[in-house]
């Protein structure tokens, strides 16, 4: 069984599709900016324009880089959206999944001491807001814009978290009946 690390990188075509969707929403939101639409629609238009504009621009650097988003190795789990540090297996107290409509979308990590691994990226700071969904987790890891699927990551966690040690087989014990042979 291989002990190679699992690596999920940015998927350029998925990120490109997300940027195209953001651009489409920006274009549609400009329709709401026409003064004859009314004040409420203009406010919605501006909110959509700013939100999807920032999201699309924020994804541009990921389109041209091939950075690792998630690395799962025998040392632990690294998630670029959380921090620049790898979280060792000893610090992870629970691993679970969360999804909607029967589809798993996130891997959730519960840490023994979350204060030792503070977030260093914007997505990490927003992770506390995920408690609104009723799920308590210290770290949420998603694979939507990566080149790997979440089931591959779960298989890597099973494989690398507790690697199977080759069992040393002792010599078989032969029962002795009666006299011992010399």
Write a structural description.
- This protein is an alpha+beta fold.
- The chain has four helices and seven strands; from the N terminus they run βααβββββαβα.
- The strands form two sheets. Strands 1-2-3-4 form a four-stranded antiparallel β-sheet.
- The longest helix has 26 residues, at 39-64.
- The two termini are 43 Å apart.
- The model has no long low-confidence stretch (mean pLDDT 81).
Record keyword descriptors for this entry:
single chain; 182 residues; alpha+beta; four-stranded antiparallel sheet; three-stranded antiparallel sheet; elongated
How many beta-strand segments? 7
Amount of helix: 25-40%
Major β-sheet strand ordering:
1-2-3-4
Beta-strand fraction estimate: 15-25%
Mean pLDDT: 81
Low-confidence stretches: none
Backbone shape: elongated
The ordered string of helix (H) and strand (E) elements is EHHEEEEEHEH
Query: Which structural class should the secondary elements be placed in?
Result: alpha+beta
What gap, in angstroms, lies between the N and C termini? Answer: 43 Å
The main sheet comes to: 4 strands, antiparallel
Rg over alpha carbons: 25 Å
Our count of helices gives 4
């Amino acid at each position: 069984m291989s002990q190679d690390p699992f690596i999920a990188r940015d998927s350029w075509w998925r990120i490109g599709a997300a940027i195209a969707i953001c651009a489409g929403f920006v274009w549609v939101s400009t329709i709401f900016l026409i003064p004859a639409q009314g004040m409420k629609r203009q406010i919605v238009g501006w909110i959509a324009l700013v939100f999807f504009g920032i999201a699309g621009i924020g994804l541009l650097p990921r389109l041209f880089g091939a950075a690792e988003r998630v690395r799962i190795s025998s040392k632990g789990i690294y998630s670029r959206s959380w921090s620049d540090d790898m979280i060792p297996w000893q610090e992870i107290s629970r691993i679970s999944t969360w999804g909607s409509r029967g589809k798993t979308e996130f891997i959730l990590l519960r840490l023994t001491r979350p204060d030792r691994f503070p977030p260093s990226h914007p997505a990490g700071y927003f992770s506390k807001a995920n408690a609104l969904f009723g799920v308590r987790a210290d770290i949420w890891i998603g694979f939507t814009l990566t080149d790997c699927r979440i089931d591959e990551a779960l298989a890597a966690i099973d494989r690398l978290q507790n690697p199977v040690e080759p069992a040393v087989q002792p010599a078989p014990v032969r029962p002795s009946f009666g006299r011992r042979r010399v």
